[in-house]
């Protein structure tokens, strides 16, 4: 077991570029591979922990191992020119050149897709409420200031801009008072989705300060928590110093008549295999929480129908409810991870066909695009033309939901903005 120095608050020491060289299995990787990681991690966030390293990664299969790909930045995630520039700056020891190369690379990676910074920020009394996003009528997203990091970072994460110390790009808020006032002014909002980063990185006392005021809002039905902690640090719900306290907090949510909907991010069935995660799930479910699962479809990590089928089967066996399969957003190292929509839909359908109806609660593949969440339902031939059949699962205008529409079939398209209307239409119906 990797030594895990723990501080006075019971926190483990995160594993970063500074200390990864102490890990025995990592040290056995070829030096060239370690160098590639060091270069790529100048640009992309790298942070992991002993549980991921020792319980989830199969080191005999690195670097192809899916969990290794999930947390270790790879050379192929940077284009070759960027890689060369960053490596040269790193080798030369020229700090300024390195900082410049790194920031150019980051800026080129579209850190805030789908209008996150400029759109959907709600207002109260003419003031913008930072740390909130309100896109779909019934659900408000809340980004608590204390939850803007994670127990480990996913290499494909579209929120990576928040983790790399970019103060300007970072949006966060400790304004739970604003949230409560906003909810009171908007009784149509039934759900608050607490997200990040990962809200479960917060100590329970801090999390309680965010959640408890919400229990007083009568129109609110559901508190969702978007989290990868079950996959990356299940001890949050078992042996951490404030694990019992967080379970009590979730029980208080249920006792107040609200549903705690835990939106668990699981990328691969291996994350569901360990004793630790299974104990954590049991504890979580015993509080009355409902656990739904979601993840993006990612090349090198889970681009395989059997992997998804196995993931959903295991989830159902453990009492979880499969919820979403997402298409990777157009940010970060997208070229490395992207799966074309046509292939994504085949993977989804192949997996879906293999599982019992109890796992067919899952929906996807879904793009969280500017106009809404768009699902690729399938392909069809209409009037002699091969088309994608698409639908909105969520939309800026709720009237768009439940209205199938068509795009020209493409084997290469990876996102909504690469699709063209089919059947002689000039624009999609939602483009007005
Ligand atoms: C996905 C999403 C939600 C929640 O959508 P559900 O389909 O209800 O899970 C809310 N707000 C935003 C911005 C989202 O992307
Ligand atoms: S856990 Fe979520 S927010 Fe954190 S790095 Fe992974 S995808 Fe991003």
From TrEMBL:
Q: What EC numbers are recorded for this enzyme?
A: 5.4.3.2
Listed cofactors = pyridoxal 5'-phosphate
Kindly state which keywords UniProt assigns to this record, in alphabetical order: 4Fe-4S, Iron, Iron-sulfur, Isomerase, Metal-binding, Pyridoxal phosphate, S-adenosyl-L-methionine
Per UniProt, what is one GO molecular function of this protein?
4 iron, 4 sulfur cluster binding
Q: What class of enzyme is it?
A: isomerase
* InterPro entries, A to Z: Aldolase_TIM, Lys_aminomutase/Glu_NH3_mut, rSAM, rSAM_sf
Q: Does the keyword Isomerase apply?
A: yes
| Keyword Isomerase tagged | yes
| Protein name stated in the entry | L-lysine 2,3-aminomutase
Provenance organism:
Oceanithermus profundus (strain DSM 14977 / NBRC 100410 / VKM B-2274 / 506)
């Amino acid at each position: 077991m990797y030594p895990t120095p723990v501080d006075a608050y019971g926190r483990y020491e995160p594993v970063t570029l500074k200390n990864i060289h102490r890990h025995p299995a990592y040290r056995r990787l070829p030096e060239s591979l370690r160098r590639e990681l060091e270069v790529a991690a100048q640009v992309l966030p790298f942070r992991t922990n002993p549980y991921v390293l020792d319980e989830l990664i199969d080191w005999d299969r690195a670097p192809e191992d899916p969990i290794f790909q999930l947390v270790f930045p790879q050379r192929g995630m940077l284009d070759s020119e960027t890689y060369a520039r960053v490596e040269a700056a790193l080798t030369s020891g020229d700090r300024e050149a390195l900082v410049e190369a790194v920031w150019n690379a980051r800026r080129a990676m579209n850190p805030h897709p789908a209008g996150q910074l400029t759109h959907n920020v709600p207002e109260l009394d003419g003031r913008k409420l930072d740390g909130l996003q309100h896109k779909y009528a019934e659900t408000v997203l809340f980004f608590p200031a204390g939850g803007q990091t994670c127990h480990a970072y996913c290499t494909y994460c579209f929120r990576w801009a928040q983790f790399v110390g970019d103060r300007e790009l970072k949006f966060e808020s400790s304004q739970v008072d604003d949230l409560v006032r906003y909810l009171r002014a908007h009784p149509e909002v039934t759900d608050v989705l607490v997200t990040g980063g990962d809200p479960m990185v917060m100590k329970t006392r801090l999390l309680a300060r965010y959640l408890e005021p919400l229990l007083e809002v009568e129109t609110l039905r559901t508190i969702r928590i978007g989290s990868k902690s079950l996959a990356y640090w299940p001890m949050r719900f078992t042996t951490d110093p404030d694990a019992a306290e967080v379970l009590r907090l979730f029980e208080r949510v249920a006792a107040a008549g609200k549903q705690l909907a835990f939106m668990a991010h699981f990328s691969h069935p291996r994350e569901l295999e360990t004793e630790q995660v299974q104990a954590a799930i049991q504890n979580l479910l015993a509080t009355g929480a409902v656990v739904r699962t979601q993840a993006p479809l990612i090349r090198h990590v889970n681009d395989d129908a059997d992997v998804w089928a196995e993931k959903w089967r295991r989830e159902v066996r453990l009492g979880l409810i499969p919820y979403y399969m997402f298409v990777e957003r157009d940010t970060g190292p997208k070229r490395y991870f992207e799966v074309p929509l046509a292939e994504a839909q085949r993977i989804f359908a192949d997996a879906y066909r293999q599982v019992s109806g109890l796992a067919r609660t899952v929906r996807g593949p879904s793009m969280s695009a500017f106009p809404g969440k768009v699902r690729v339902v399938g392909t069809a031939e209409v009037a002699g033309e091969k088309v994608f059949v698409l639908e909105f699962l969520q939309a800026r205008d709720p009237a768009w939901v439940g209205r199938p529409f068509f795009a020209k079939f493409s084997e290469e398209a990876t996102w909504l903005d690469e699709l063209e209307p089919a059947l002689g239409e000039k624009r999609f119906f939602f483009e007005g």
